[in-house]
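Re: weekly structure request thread

Next one in the queue (143 aa):
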Amino acid sequence: MYDLLLHRATSIVGNAEDAKDIVQDLYVHIKTRQGHPVAIANRRGYLYGMVSNMSRLFLRRQKNHMELEWESQNRDLWTTLNTSFYIDDLLMPLTELQKSIVRLHDIEGYTCMEIARRLRRTPGAVKKQLSLAHKKIKETQKP
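Done, posted below.
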């Protein structure tokens, strides 16, 4: 019966490895089932129906898992986009230099010394621009 059941499961799920797991799960289910043994008139038909149902259940679970994964990825993307739009709006009144400094310092975590080296400025100039940027942001956030 194994080859027949494997062929049936493969024809439903389309993957031989998953089909082998399904047939194996069917045999485990039958062997470990609690209670009185059920008298089955057509054992072949019973097993064929069971493997068909288990294969469809496998596909349904796989589809639900993929949908949940897709929703999760889109939720993360949406959160990132909303945060990005919020930051862009927040930095809008700043000059390009101030925007760069705020992004490097407040978002990416660089020190003023590292920013100064990167932007070819003095550390004092970076600190001054950062201070002016923070002041501008606070002023624009007041109602």
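The first helix runs from residue 2 to 13. The mean pLDDT is 84.
Next request, please.
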